[in-house]
Amino acid sequence: MLIVKPGSNAVSDLEPAEEPLPAFDAEEIEPRFRAVVGRNGERRGIRLERIYWDGLGRMSTSGRMTTADLVQYTASQMPESGNLASLLRVLSLKWALRRLDTVEDISSMANINAIIQASPSPAILLTQEKKVQFFNDPFLSMLRQRLPLSDTAQLTKGLRFSVDTQIEEAIATLRRNKGKTLNTGFTIAVGTQTMKGQINLALAPTHEKSMLIGYISRY
């Protein structure tokens, strides 16, 4: 059963997710030697852990250059007393953190709420804990139209929202089928009044917790 929190269409008391630290094995921390040849023919032997080679590979792809070009550029920026392997590690991590900052900004709860509010149809954000985290004005208008009560506070207080598919199952299905949506039924009840309809669910583009955006397609 999903419970709509009363009061506002932008609920902001989401608890931060606790993510486990990533595991690693001996192979990942063993430095790997590679001979890198620049365009000028200069050959450099570099030992880096696999994760840093992976990071440099992603940087190269993003910058539309070869890893050798990236290494040559980094070497040209290196202080006279610098260490190229250390500089490449710093560069790889700095690039990854900048990418992470961009992704976290795009997938912030404020932007997720903006997506909900921009929808012309009734839309909600469902948490994995089965709570309606956000809803938009069309959703509230739908409630007023189909479940007429004296005021908004009375309408949202104690409102029960349930979907025909288990939230955990919906999230797992959408993760397996990236870019797809899931259509299922829903039921809303306030006191003795009920309404049913169909809702399209999609994974919310957020890094904080597994959540679903629901667009009501029929009621």
Describe the structure.
By secondary structure, the chain is α+β, with helices and mostly antiparallel strands. The protein is about 40% helix and about 25% strand. It contains 8 helices and 9 strands. The protein has helices spanning about 25-30, 50-60, 65-75, 85-105, 110-120, 135-145, 150-155, 165-175, and strands at about 1-5, 30-35, 45-50, 125, 130-135, 160-165, 180-190, 195-205, 210-219. It is elongated and about 80 Å long. The two termini are about 20 Å apart. Mean pLDDT is about 85; it is low at about 1-10 and about 10-15.
Write the layout of secondary structure elements.
Blueprint: E1 2-4, H1 26-29, E2 32-37, E3 43-48, H2 50-62, H3 67-77, H4 84-106, H5 109-118, E4 123-127, E5 131-135, H6 137-146, H7 152-156, E6 160-163, H8 167-176, E7 182-190, E8 193-203, E9 211-218
Parallel strand pairs: 1-5
Antiparallel strand pairs: 1-6, 2-3, 4-5, 4-9, 6-7, 7-8, 8-9
Helix pairs in contact: 2-4
List the keywords.
Beta-Lactamase; 9 strands; 7-stranded mixed barrel; 219 residues; two-stranded antiparallel sheet; 8 helices
Topology as a string of helices (H) and strands (E): EHEEHHHHEEHHEHEEE
CATH architecture of the largest domain: 2-Layer Sandwich
Query: How far apart, in Å, are the first and last alpha carbons?
Result: 19 Å
CATH topology-level name of the largest domain: Beta-Lactamase
What would you call the structural class? alpha+beta
Question: How many helices?
Answer: 8
What is the C-alpha radius of gyration, as a whole number of Å? 25 Å
Largest beta sheet: what is the strand line-up? 1-5-4-9-8-7-6
The major β-sheet equals: 7 strands, mixed, barrel
Task: List segments where confidence is low: pLDDT < 50 over at least 5 consecutive residues.
Answer: 1-8, 10-17
What is the residue-averaged pLDDT?
Answer: 85
Q: What's the level 1 CATH class of the largest domain?
A: Alpha Beta
Strand tally: 9
User: How much beta, percentage-wise?
Assistant: 25-35%
Tell me the helix content. Answer: 25-40%
The domain count comes to: 2
Indicate the overall shape: elongated
